[in-house]
Specification:
Elements lengths: L8 E3 L5 E3 L10 E2 L2 E2 L6 E2 L8 H17 L3 H35 L7 H23 L2 H20 L4 H29 L6 H5 L2 H17 L19 H24 L5 H5 L4 H14 L8 H5 L11 H4 L3 H14 L4 H34 L8 H15 L1 H9 L6 H20 L5 H28 L6 H26 L6 H19 L7 E2 L2
Parallel strand pairs: 5-6
Antiparallel strand pairs: 1-2, 3-4
Pfam families: MFS_1
Keywords: Membrane, Transmembrane, Transmembrane helix, Transport
Protein name: DEKNAAC102879
Length: about 525
Amino acid sequence: MADTDNGKERVEPSGRSKPESSMQETDLLEVGEGSISSETLVDMTEVEGEDPALSKKVHLINNAIDEIGFTWMHAVLFCIAGFGYSADSQMEVIQASVYRYVDLQFRGPGTYPLATQISYAALVTGCIVFGFGADLIGRKICFNSSLILSSVFGLFTGGAGSYAIYVIFFFLSELAAGGNLSIDISVFMEYLPSKYQYLNTTMAAWWGVGQTIAALMAWAFIPNNSCSPDATTCTSRENRGWRYVWYVNSAMILFVGLVRLFILRLKETPKFLVSNGRDREAYENLLSIAKKYNRKCSLTLEDLTECGEIKEDYYDPAKHGRSLKKLTQTIGDHIKILFSSRKVTRSTTLLLLSWAIIGLAYSTFYNFLYIYIAAHGASGLNSKFITYRNGTIDNMVGIFGPIAAGWLIKIPRVGRRGTMIFGSLSGMAVVFAYTTCRTAAADAGFGSATYFFINIYYACLYAYTPEVFPTRARTTGVALCMICGRVAGAFSTVIYWYSSAINPATPIWVCGALIGCLSILAFFMPFEPSKQRTV
């Protein structure tokens, strides 16, 4: 690749000349579904920092992915990666559904919900292990192993004979499920044609699917197979419901994990490969997809190599072996990439803060909600049947929040940030209105609206986060954001335990205000990926 002396013109790998200002714009591409419109799509290369070679390589990869278009592989990946969302949310809802009965059997009534607190430690650890690991050793290994590990440990959790064993295996199962969530969206996004980027947001509908599945299992097994909440003694024979929930849930996750491993057979993502100096593998990966689905792929290996050498700050196991020093250095380099410029630093900081706020507000709201409702004389909510029925309805309605978000982000003047602003303000209004709930019917209505609007924000945030992180440090950035959310969420249990007897109304109003504040953070986020291709 040659530069002219004045820097105004460069020769691309294909031999065509283009003005410097349009180096990151695409031409009209003939793809599987037809052609992209003649308006150009700009790569969001600013987030890549100071590595022009990598920016050019990712630009060519994006061109190739757009040229291949949407295939059956993408449809299957949407479902399989989406179930990773489902698995994580199932774990959280299941623990919220069964912990009282597990504590009642092993520890007695009125004990501190230790396992729930430990779940946050597991989620943080999972984000570190799988999130950082996916940028170090690749997306493929983490993606394929996480659900299988979660399901196996989940089966052991259901068979626990003591509280200590329950906590240990629950921790390991939650660790794998939470770590999986940090890589699912990145894997899907790095294969997705730009024309279908809205599916990154819509995929969060699987979060609601998982919550609904878990709520249905709890509704099916808990009411008729559990001890009474005010029982003084509780034996395993009369308290089998929580075990059934764990067994069924883990079997479902194991099935999807095996589908990932033996049917989908996902290859490493091309963007990870080029960001780690493995151009040939990236090219062969894209070529194999094009051949399998009879699609055109004009990319050549020479196109990639002529872009030049990328900066070598990645971890190569073949070259560095098990060097702890190099591993630590690479992790540090990845974190530095997230703060490589003023604009990128602003974006990363606002995202970390947003995740911390939504993590605290979301968790505290659902811990405090029924305490508040009970304190204000709501009728009909002391029945296990009605409680689990309403929870199932709420979660089912929540599925449509991400679907609505996927539609909203396609509106030109709304985009990602506008959708997050709408979701947070609407969620704040509904949370404040929820405080008027006094009946089971009102609980179902307000609960459904809350799930719907908060999931609009949450779905968009989940998709936006990896979109604005650079390729080389993408899952590291996602992991850091989720760590902020999990750590903040861990304080909800402490607040719930020590403050519920003082004034149950205050946390609900504070949570509503925090959710509303998220709209301010979204407004100041510097990137809007709606009209750009992610790198």
